[in-house]
């Protein structure tokens, strides 16, 4: 087994900073500290430069910095942030366990899929940065060992696959050693390795069985049990913005946090989305005047790739003009479909090529608009000029299946002229660059009487002296029988 521990040492501070960050402003903010029970627990860099320290009373902290902003710890906001981090972690493994200030993940089965533990660790930290969370990360064969190593701020991405790495950790990293730190320091026990070399019977009598059990779990000598995080049955994500956003492109930073949660939830559910809607909730001057702008995005092929969805959203936001400042975002999955994980392929397959085409269509729709991208479709009308329409492409193009529309028994050209071209006659034969020879026909069409645009024609396939195949017809009513009644309607490629 291989575990990753993701420790969030500044979680209370990060949740407060996320609500203060404005992507449209780079102004210097005031110092910030988080207080619990009237004592400073966490503080940002500016507060640290002013001399603020953990454990300091609120009154002493304000005396050092008159501009210091002190915020009470918000446990509900921290829980929401942990849920967001867990949804992102589900991209890499279904075995995710929550800790009070971090996550534990078992990734042994995911190493080959993602190209090794280092790549998983790098992507995890990138996602934490997008979510606005500071994290330290460590590997270990045991969950407790990884968690102990991740709590050391200097470790960054650490590997505790060797027991010697655990021996060097300070004893204060052990949760059950906290009540006994003074005693341990007095006897010269400063590291976990030194504590482990003490007699087990004496450790149990002086410090209790829990401390010894934590040591055993860290070194794999005692089994561990974890309650795995389960994604909610219904996805709903909303984000209140720290201030009024007046430019649509500035919303991408916040919207990406929602996309990471959505794609993690989809991965856990073995599903994908064929369309999403980002709701922009605007500031209202009157309490009852609450307006929202939907921003739908249609996908040619269902996906749960966060980078692909971010790209489509960036295209839509780039051409959007806000009707009013935005104060909140919410994300909805319009249509969820089951989708297993993609298999890796050595050579290109038709499915992979179809996916490339679908993604091109999605980008064009996001950039130009849904109704700007059209497709050919058959229509139930015998008149050739009305039998093909170009509706907007609102769903994925069909692949490999037969059209539900009936096919014509006779051959018809793919290229029709915008208007039938009248032909002259020479020697009682239709003429186009040269006299035409009729090869097949007639195909008689009599229709259109119900909409006052009747078509009474006999169609033929003809050939000229240059061996070009033409699709011509002869009108059978006097109204269309001008110039001998022959018309050129299409060309065969």
Could you explain how this protein is built, in words?
- With 493 residues, the protein is of the alpha+beta class.
- It folds into three domains: 3-161, MutS, DNA mismatch repair protein, domain I (3-Layer(aba) Sandwich), CATH 3.40.1170; 237-341 and 349-364, 2-Layer Sandwich (Dna Ligase, domain 1); 415-491.
- Helix content is 29%, strand content 27%.
- It contains 15 helices and 21 strands.
- Strands 5-6-1-7-8 form a five-stranded mixed β-sheet, with helices on both faces. It has a five-stranded antiparallel β-sheet with strand order 15-21-20-19-18, with no helix packed on it. Strands 9-12-10-11 form a four-stranded antiparallel β-sheet, covered by helices on one side.
- Helix 7 links the parallel strand 7 and strand 8.
- Helix 1 packs across helix 4.
- Mean pLDDT is 82; it is low at 396-409.
- InterPro entries: DNA/RNA_pol_sf (IPR043502), SulA_CellDiv_inhibitor (IPR050356), UmuC (IPR001126).
- Residues 28-148 form the UmuC domain.
Question: Oligomeric state of the chains?
Answer: single chain
Q: The biggest beta sheet, please?
A: 5 strands, mixed
- What is the count of distinct domains? 3
Uncertain runs with pLDDT below 50, 5 residues or more?
396-409
CATH topology of the largest domain: MutS, DNA mismatch repair protein, domain I
Strand arrangement in the largest pleated sheet:
5-6-1-7-8
Alpha-carbon distance between the termini? 63 Å
Task: Supply the CATH architecture of the largest domain.
Answer: 3-Layer(aba) Sandwich
Number of strands: 21
User: Average pLDDT across residues?
Assistant: 82
What structural category characterises the helix and strand content? alpha+beta
Work out the strand percent. Answer: 25-35%
User: In CATH's first tier, which class of the largest domain applies?
Assistant: Alpha Beta
Number of helices: 15
Q: Which descriptor suits the 3D outline?
A: elongated
Helix content: 25-40%
How many whole angstroms does the radius of gyration measure? 35 Å
Region (Disordered): 392-411
Domain UmuC: 28-148
Organism: Oxalicibacterium flavum
GO biological process, one term: DNA repair
């Amino acid at each position: 087994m291989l575990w990753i521990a993701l420790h969030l040492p500044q979680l209370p501070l990060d949740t407060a900073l996320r609500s203060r960050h404005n992507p449209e402003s780079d102004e210097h903010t005031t110092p910030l500290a988080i207080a619990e029970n009237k004592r400073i627990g966490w503080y940002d860099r500016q507060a640290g430069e002013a001399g603020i320290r953990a454990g300091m009373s609120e009154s002493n902290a304000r005396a050092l910095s008159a501009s210091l902003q002190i915020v009470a710890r918000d446990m509900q906001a921290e829980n929401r942030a942990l849920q967001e981090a867990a949804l992102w972690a589900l991209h890499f493994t279904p075995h995710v366990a929550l800790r009070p200030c971090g996550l534990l993940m078992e990734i042994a089965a995911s190493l080959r899929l993602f190209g090794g533990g280092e790549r998983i660790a790098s992507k995890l930290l990138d996602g934490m940065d997008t979510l606005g969370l500071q994290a330290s990360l460590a590997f270990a064969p045991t969950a407790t060992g990884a968690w102990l190593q991740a709590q050391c701020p200097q470790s960054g991405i650490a590997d505790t696959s060797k027991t010697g790495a655990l021996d060097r950790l300070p004893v204060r990293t052990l949760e059950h050693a906290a009540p006994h730190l003074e005693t341990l320091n007095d006897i010269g026990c400063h590291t976990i390795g030194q504590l482990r070399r003490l007699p087990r019977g004496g450790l149990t009598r002086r410090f209790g069985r829990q401390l010894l059990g934590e040591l055993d779990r860290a070194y794999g000598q005692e089994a561990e049990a974890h309650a795995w995080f389960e994604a909610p049955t219904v996805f709903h994500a909303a984000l209140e913005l720290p201030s009024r956003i007046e430019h649509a492109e500035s919303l991408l930073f916040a919207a990406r946090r929602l996309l990471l949660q959505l794609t993690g939830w989809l991965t856990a559910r073995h599903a994908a989305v064929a369309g999403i809607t980002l709701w922009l909730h605007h500031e209202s001057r009157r309490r009852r005047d609450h307006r929202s702008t939907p921003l739908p995005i249609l996908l040619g092929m269902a996906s749960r790739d966060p980078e692909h969805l971010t790209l489509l959203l960036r295209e839509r936001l780039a051409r959007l003009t806000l009707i009013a400042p935005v104060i909140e975002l919410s994300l909805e999955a319009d249509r969820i479909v089951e989708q297993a994980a993609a298999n890796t392929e050595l050579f290109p397959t038709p499915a992979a090529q179809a996916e490339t085409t679908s993604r091109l269509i999605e980008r064009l729709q996001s950039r130009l608009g849904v109704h700007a991208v059209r497709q050919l479709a058959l229509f139930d009308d015998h008149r050739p000029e009305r039998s093909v329409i170009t509706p907007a492409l609102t769903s994925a193009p069909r692949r490999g299946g037969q059209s539900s529309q009936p096919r014509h028994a006779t051959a018809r050209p793919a290229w029709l002229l915008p208007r039938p071209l009248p032909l002259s006659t020479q020697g009682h034969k239709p003429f186009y660059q040269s006299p035409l020879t009729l090869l097949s026909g007639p195909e008689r069409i009599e229709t259109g009487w119900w909409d006052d645009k009747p078509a009474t024609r006999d169609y033929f396939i003809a050939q000229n002296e240059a061996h070009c195949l033409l699709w011509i017809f002869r009108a059978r009513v006097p109204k269309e029988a001008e110039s001998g009644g022959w018309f050129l309607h299409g060309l065969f490629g």
